[in-house]
User: What shape does this take?
Amino acid sequence: MSTFRPFSGQRIAVVGLGRAGLPAALRLREWGAEVVAWDDGAAGLDGAERAGMTVRDLSAGPFAFDALMLSPGIPHILPKPHPVASRARDAGVPILADVEFLFRAVRAAGSQAQFIGVTGTNGKSTTTALVHHLLTGAGQTSEVGGNLGPAALGLNILGHNGRYALEMSSYMLERLASIRFNHGVMLNLSADHLDRHGSMAGYAAAKAEIFARQQPEDLAVVGQDDAWTAAMAAGRRARLRSISALRPIAGGIWAEGASLRDDSGEIADLRAAPALPGSHNAQNAAAAAAVALDLGVTRAQVAAGLVTFPGLPHRQERVGTLGGVVFVNDSKATNADSTARALASYDRVVWIAGGIAKEGGIEALAPFFPRIAKALLIGRDAPAFAATLAAAGVPHEVTGTLDAAVPAAAAAARSGAAPVVLLSPACASFDQFTGFDARGDRFRALVQGMISDDLGRAA
Assistant: This one.
């Protein structure tokens, strides 16, 4: 039995026993908590029972708990609260994210390890991973996780010199109570998850929690390239470092083309960083550099780290080249704003898009339509996308499935239409896949299968 038991004597309810929920429940139990778990699905309950967890339907009976840890995807207010969340709120029981428990455990261990929180509508996964890459490349001790994975409660307890680089979704940020981010990063904000937060103002308020409880010695890194995010620079208690991918900012870090700069001159030439294409990645690089430099990483180490950063799966991931055509997996682009960033990175593409569209569909992508040689459309909202593209005169074809779209896109590109096939769906994936990662994995497998077949014919 673990001798480290920071939650001894506490009763914690855990609802949602998926990839993160069950390991979190087990860690809380290991750390001394009395845990009662529940999931609305049979698979989650079966896994918990096999692990020896106490399982009980928490929508009935007394609700005598010190806290409820609710899976981030389960709503506690909007659009409709989960019944257990309603019971917790009625009982005055705090509803918390697993990051909150990690923070409490670290402090209970007597460690002053620093917490770095990264949020924004787009780019937060890449920026979080990049911060971790820069820190470890400079010899610092860092753990990375949160919304990016692994789950926060799967991370190790670090000593005083440790750093936790954590991707924070709005769903997680609205369920915090005491965690303080020594470095809080807010990249950008565009319409997303409005059903969960009620409005853009509600969404922005959730995101602004990244700066809650910061002290004057902490650092707030704030993007300046959209009005919602730029407004968050005002009233910060912590030190402020502004970032931009579009214009110079005195005292900040910005990109001039591919040159990442601050008041002292060039930090890095991003043309040498193959995993960071486009202006959106310049913003990500600026944010990561701001954190790393503040934590003692040298300018030379930052420049070297940007070059060696391998990138993340499903985020403009180059998965193969066939007949001179590059295939790019940007399956993580689940909204039009994220896809706009991908389309802006290439002069001419054959585009694969579709799935479950967000509000507004792809209307906002009209400025990038001239870059699309042909679009192959998949998923539930392919007909709606086809109507938008037809009105704009963009060549397109409804293929229905990714398995049909990939060879059709390859044929179009190899005929000379474009040098890039880009999967950047601008849609959620749940109509045909378990998640954006499964969609991207399938794209990668299809591309690599075509490459293997091509090599076999050549032999």
Notes: Residues 436-458 form the longest helix (23 residues).
